[in-house]
């Protein structure tokens, strides 16, 4: 992991969990895996305090532990999951669009608690929903509805059980393979007549199985099973969304719906991270197309043909049975997307002539300067400048091929080329740096207006209590007056600034996500071949 | 044969010319009008005069005054020897070197290198040859100050003049960009109107295609180019649009199938895959000093002016 990413980790920890957590997190990041006592010593805090924070981190899946060779438990910061905390809004929003409000709240609750018991979270979400419903004067819902959503999320692997790790057993980590179905098996739940989850009396009773799983030979206790969000699954979904969105932009909305349907169909059939999905037949695709899209058979055929002919080569026809078998090449989609993002950076940073030169290099691999000038039709002087600038900022690289062993410049060919992976890595760095900058700026903004923000909070609190005690309007108005108009405009401005920075962080994360997924796939590909 | 009477005089004229040349060959010291007349009495004066005039104007023979004061015709030597007669060996050598370089021309340094002459000598000879209109200097586009020499009557190679995109030796960058934009607008417009037709997707895509010939016609009719561009020239421009990522090309077999390559290059506008990427939507993405920017540094996010501007603070 890079410095910039570590920096972002540190800032996120500070922002979300405070300075003590930041200190411990930083130490773990800097030193790598280390045992508890050593860690406590290093940060100069009481053992108990460190232990408490570590527990908290583990609860939030931010720290992993492992027994080292000498039998000590060592703790390690999980950098990626920490960074992914800034993706929370995306996970939550995604759950909402897929499964509605209840799923949104479920994912939100699970994310903010790290690991939870099913009964707890279902109850909490039911309560929250009912509260909102009551306020808007609508009938309340039963916990059953929420439980169903919970099951849907588990069935589609968006949430999963935590693998139980006990420090006492010989090998302290039990890594269950992620396609193991038991990871997503939902126990049944007792729901009483009022639509409430039946509470268990106390924790000491939890060793008696309350419910047994009917299917499967393993007896599953509801108690003690903690659930967490399966972030990888969300990432796969984001990846698919990104490819769908790209083709929606390039071809049109309907074409992208066809692709979306294909991805949905093959989702369950293909191994996660397979570069190419399992083929699906035309008949299947056509039948699974949502009716709202309103495509006739022949138009669907045409769209498939268009998708296959597209230069991105994301969709291809692989057979003729069932009206034609089609598969989606996820990896090619990611390459196209990665190129698009890198090109976008080149365009904005260096201008359109540079982009042309950059794309000439992407397509033609190794070229001499003269060839570049001719292909891109850019005057020699300008081309030289552009190439130098992009070289200095590591967007293009040079290969030297010397005719003689002395590497005399006059007898050497200088070939320019673009190494996409290298550029992607470099840009990820830049993104993390920009992300850190945004976080720092936001922190500074809120610090600067701390007093004002505190005041607003106090005022809001007073108003809330006044409302509860049923005070009249005049009183409330008076309290509201405590914030002067000037202060109000300032507060609005601060809010706007923070929103803008928030948004920038999310957009940065989009870029990071595509680039990192591309690199992830490329590495897998090179491993395989 | 109906055409015979028409072609006869031509055949005769050509015959006369070849015979005059043969005569000159036989008499390297030159032939007088009398000799010709004696040799081929079947031609009349008029025919003779036309033939000789043609030979003179095409530069195959020379009219010279012999030592005896008579006018004689002599064969114009197609080789250097005849041309540079009266000049010395060195001049011949230099001429030969330049001749060998063909229409690509040769650089003065290379002439020196090949002829083993001093720069001053070479300069003098070149000036001489130039004033006799035997050679000419052409500015090359490859390097701004580089002049190359070639025979006077040669048309310089594309690599020297740079083709349609150069005037003198300057690359007409603006001209290329104007054409690039015009072509783009044309294709974009075509794609837009195809979209509005609301026909089925494949027909819609096909309607957005334009062939390089269509583009060529469009550009020629626009009249923005002072010089005549070829279809290939337009294809070079269209290629730049492909590199810009705004246009894609497909090659299809020509309807009818026969004739040149049997292929048509079709071009169409394509929409981008993504909107500007997240990194570029905040100032740090295009920041020139981001490498020197860190918390507490001289340049830092908290004091950064780009940030301030962007956030409207
Ligand atoms: S904060 Fe300002 S100075 Fe720093 S990288 Fe961003 S734009 Fe550049």
UniProtKB/TrEMBL annotation, chain A:
Residues 173-218 are annotated as: Disordered. It is found in: Nucleus. GO terms for molecular function: single-stranded DNA binding. One of its GO terms (biological process) is DNA-templated transcription. Keywords: DNA-directed RNA polymerase, Nucleus, Transcription. Gene3D superfamilies: 6.10.140.1450, Winged helix-like DNA-binding domain superfamily/Winged helix DNA-binding domain. Transmembrane segments: none annotated. The keyword Cell inner membrane does not apply. Residues 342-418 form the DNA-directed RNA polymerase III subunit RPC3 winged-helix domain. It comes from the Eukaryota. Residues 7-65 form the RNA polymerase III subunit RPC82-related helix-turn-helix domain. One of its GO terms (cellular component) is RNA polymerase III complex. InterPro entries: POLR3C_WHD (IPR055207), RNA_pol_III_RPC82-rel_HTH (IPR013197), RNA_pol_III_Rpc82_C (IPR008806), RPC3 (IPR039748), WH-like_DNA-bd_sf (IPR036388), WH_DNA-bd_sf (IPR036390). PANTHER family: DNA-DIRECTED RNA POLYMERASE III SUBUNIT RPC3 (PTHR12949:SF0), RNA POLYMERASE III DNA DIRECTED -RELATED (PTHR12949). DNA-dependent RNA polymerase catalyzes the transcription of DNA into RNA using the four ribonucleoside triphosphates as substrates. Specific core component of RNA polymerase III which synthesizes small RNAs, such as 5S rRNA and tRNAs. Component of the RNA polymerase III (Pol III) complex consisting of 17 subunits. This is DNA-directed RNA polymerase III subunit RPC3. It comes from Potamilus streckersoni.
TrEMBL record, chain B:
The keyword Protein transport does not apply. SUPFAM superfamilies: Winged helix' DNA-binding domain. Keywords: DNA-directed RNA polymerase, Nucleus, Transcription. GO terms for biological process: transcription by RNA polymerase III. InterPro entries: RNA_pol_Rpc34 (IPR007832), RNA_pol_Rpc34-like (IPR016049), WH-like_DNA-bd_sf (IPR036388), WH_DNA-bd_sf (IPR036390). Pfam families: RNA_pol_Rpc34. Its main location: nucleus. It is found in: Nucleus. The keyword Transcription applies. It comes from the Eukaryota. One of its GO terms (cellular component) is cytoplasm. DNA-dependent RNA polymerase catalyzes the transcription of DNA into RNA using the four ribonucleoside triphosphates as substrates. Specific peripheric component of RNA polymerase III which synthesizes small RNAs, such as 5S rRNA and tRNAs. Belongs to the eukaryotic RPC34/RPC39 RNA polymerase subunit family. PANTHER family: RNA POLYMERASE III DNA DIRECTED , 39KD SUBUNIT-RELATED. This is DNA-directed RNA polymerase III subunit RPC6.
């Amino acid at each position: 992991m890079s410095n910039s990413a570590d920096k972002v980790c540190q800032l996120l920890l500070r922002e979300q969990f405070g300075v003590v957590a930041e200190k411990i997190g930083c130490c773990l990041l800097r030193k790598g895996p280390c045992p508890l006592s050593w860690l406590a010593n290093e940060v100069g805090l009481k053992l108990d305090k460190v232990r408490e924070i570590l527990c908290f981190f583990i609860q939030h899946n931010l720290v992993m532990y492992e027994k080292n060779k000498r039998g000590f438990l060592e703790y390690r910061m999980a950098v990626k999951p920490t960074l992914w905390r800034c993706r929370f809004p995306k996970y939550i929003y995604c759950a909402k669009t897929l499964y509605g409000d209840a799923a949104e709240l479920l994912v939100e609750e699970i994310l903010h608690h790290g690991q939870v018991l099913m009964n707890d979270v279902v109850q909490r979400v039911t309560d929250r929903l009912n509260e909102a419903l009551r306020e808007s004067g609508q009938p309340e819902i039963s916990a059953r509805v929420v439980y169903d959503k919970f099951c849907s999320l588990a069935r589609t692997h968006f949430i999963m059980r935590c693998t139980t790790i006990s420090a006492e057993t010989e090998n302290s980590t039990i890594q269950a393979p992620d396609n193991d179905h038991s990871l997503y098996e939902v126990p049944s739940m007792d729901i009483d007549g009022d639509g409430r989850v039946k509470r268990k009396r106390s924790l000491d009773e939890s060793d008696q199985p309350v419910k047994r799983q009917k299917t499967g030979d393993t007896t599953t206790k509801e108690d003690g099973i903690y659930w967490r969000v399966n972030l990888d699954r969300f990432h796969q979904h984001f990846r698919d969304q990104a490819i769908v969105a790209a083709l929606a932009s390039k071809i049109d909305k309907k074409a992208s719906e066809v692709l979306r349907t294909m991805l949905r169909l093959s989702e369950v059939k293909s191994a996660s991270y397979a570069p190419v999905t399992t083929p699906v037949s035309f008949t299947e695709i056509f039948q699974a197309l949502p009716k709202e899209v309103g495509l006739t058979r022949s138009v669907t055929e045409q769209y498939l043909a268009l998708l296959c002919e597209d230069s991105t080569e994301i969709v291809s026809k692989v057979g003729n049975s069932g009206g034609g078998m089609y598969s989606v090449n996820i990896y090619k989609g990611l390459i196209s997307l990665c190129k698009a993002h890198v090109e976008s950076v080149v365009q904005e940073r260096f201008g359109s002539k540079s982009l042309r030169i950059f794309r000439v290099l992407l397509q033609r691999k190794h070229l001499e300067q003269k060839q570049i000038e001719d292909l891109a039709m850019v005057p020699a002087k300008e081309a030289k400048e552009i190439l130098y600038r992009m070289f200095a900022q590591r967007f293009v690289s040079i290969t030297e091929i010397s005719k003689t062993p002395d590497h005399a410049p006059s007898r050497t060919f200088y070939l320019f080329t673009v190494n996409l992976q290298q550029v992607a890595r470099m840009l990820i760095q830049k993104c993390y740096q920009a992300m850190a900058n945004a976080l720092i700026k936001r922190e500074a903004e809120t610090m600067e207006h701390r007093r004002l923000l505190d005041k607003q909070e106090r005022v809001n609190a007073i108003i809330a209590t006044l409302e509860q005690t049923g005070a009249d309007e005049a009183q409330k108005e008076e309290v509201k007056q405590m914030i002067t108009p000037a202060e109000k405009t300032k507060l609005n401005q601060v809010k706007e600034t923070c929103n803008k920075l928030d948004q920038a962080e999310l957009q940065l994360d989009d870029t990071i996500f595509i680039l990192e997924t591309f690199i992830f796939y490329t590495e897998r590909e090179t491993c395989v071949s | 044969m109906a055409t015979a009477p028409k072609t006869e005089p031509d055949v005769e004229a050509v015959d006369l010319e070849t015979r005059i040349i043969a005569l000159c060959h036989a008499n390297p010291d030159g032939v007088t009008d009398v000799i010709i007349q004696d040799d081929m009495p079947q031609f009349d004066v008029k025919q003779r005069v036309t033939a000789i005039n043609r030979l003179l104007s095409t530069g195959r023979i020379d009219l010279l005054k012999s030592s005896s004061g008579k006018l004689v015709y002599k064969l114009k030597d197609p080789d250097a020897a005849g041309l540079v007669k009266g000049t010395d060996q060195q001049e011949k050598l230099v001429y030969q070197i330049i001749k060998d370089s063909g229409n690509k021309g040769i650089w003065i340094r290379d002439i020196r290198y090949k002829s083993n002459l001093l720069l001053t000598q070479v300069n003098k000879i070149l000036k001489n040859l130039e004033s006799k209109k035997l050679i000419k200097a052409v500015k090359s586009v490859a390097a701004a100050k580089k002049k190359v020499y070639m025979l006077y009557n040669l048309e310089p190679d594309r690599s020297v003049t740079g083709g349609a995109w150069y005037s003198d030796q300057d690359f007409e960058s603006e001209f290329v960009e104007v054409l690039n934009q015009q072509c783009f607008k044309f294709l974009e417009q075509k794609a837009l109107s195809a979209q509005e037709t609301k026909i089925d997707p494949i027909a819609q895509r096909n309607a957005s295609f334009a062939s390089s010939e269509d583009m060529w016609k469009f550009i020629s009719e626009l009249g923005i180019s002072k010089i005549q561009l070829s279809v290939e020239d337009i294809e070079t421009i269209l290629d730049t649009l492909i590199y810009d990522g705004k246009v894609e090309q497909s090659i299809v077999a020509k309807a009818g199938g026969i004739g040149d390559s049997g292929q048509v290059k079709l071009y169409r506008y394509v929409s981008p895959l993504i909107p500007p990427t997240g990194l570029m939507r905040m100032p740090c993405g295009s920041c020139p000093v981001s490498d020197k920017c860190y918390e507490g540094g001289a340049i830092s996010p908290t004091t950064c002016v780009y940030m301030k501007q962007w956030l409207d603070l």
